Amino acid sequence: MKDPEWLNSVKNILKKCCEQNPLHIFGYGNTLRRDDGVGLYIVSRLSKTVKKIPGYIHIHPASASIERELKRIPKSSIVIIIDTVKIDEAPGTIIFTRFDDVESCYFDTHNIPLKFILEANMLLDNSYLLGIVPQDTNVGEGLTPIVKDSADKVLTGLMEELISKFHILGG
Fold first, then answer.
1. φ, ψ for residue 18 (rounded to 5)?
2. Fewer CB atoms inside 10 A, N or C side of the chain?
3. Architecture (CATH level 2) of domain 5-165
4. How many CB atoms lie within 10 A of CB 51?
C-alpha cells in the first residue's frame, strides 16, 4: 500500500493497541549509507518529541541489535518497523504493508532479513513495515531532500495519530 493510503492503515493498526497488544515502533537502517538511515531518523525524532506516553507504547531508539530487542517483547505485540525499501517506485514513495507480504529483496543493506527475525520470534502475524523508497544508499551521511521530505511526512502523520489516539504530549 502506497502513499497516502499508508496513514489510514496505520490508524487502523493503532486502534488495536492496548495493554494486551502493546505497540513497538522500531527504526532500522544505517546512517552511514545516506537514505538507509531514514528509519533511524524518524524514530530518533519521534522519541525526542514524545514527552508523555502510555506504558504499552514503546518507541525504540536506534539500536544495532534489533534482533535482541525483538526477543524481549511479548508475542501479542504490534510491531512497526520503519526502514528503506527497494521497490520499483519513485524515491520518497511511502509504503505500508504486513511483514507477511514482504519479499526479502526489499532490503539490500541488512545481514539478516527482518522477516526471518520476526518469524523466528513468533512476531510475524502482527508486524508491519512502514517503508520509504531511497534515492541514495551509497556511503555518506544525511538523507537526500526527497527522502527527508517523506520522512518528515511520516513523522508528522505518526505524531498526529499518536496524539489523537493516545493523548501523547509532544514537545
1. -165, -175
2. C
3. 3-Layer(aba) Sandwich (3.40)
4. 9
- CB proximity list for 156: less than 8 A, separation 6 or greater: none
What confidence tens digit (pLDDT) does each residue in 72-101 have? 888 899 999 999 988 899 999 999 998 877
Can you tell me the distance from the alpha carbon of 158 to that of 96, in angstroms, rounded to the nearest whole number?
A: 13
Strand partners, 130: 82, 96
Q: What is the pLDDT of residue 108?
A: 47
Nearest to 151 by CA among 51, 71, 84: 84
DSSP classification of residue 125? G
pLDDT class of 105 with cuts at 50, 70, 90: very low
Single out the residue of 80, 111, 107, 109 nearest to residue 96, CA to CA: 80
- The dihedral through the CA atoms of 158, 162, 163, 169 has a sign that is negative
Q: Pick the residue with more confidence: 61 or 99?
A: 99
Pair 77, 28: CB distance under 8 Å: no
Q: How far apart are CA 37 and CA 92, in angstroms?
A: 13
List of E strands, 35-77: 50-52, 57-60
Instruction: Please name every residue paired with 50 in a beta bridge, in sequence order, or none if there are none.
Output: 170
Q: Any idea which residue has 515502533 for its cell?
A: 25
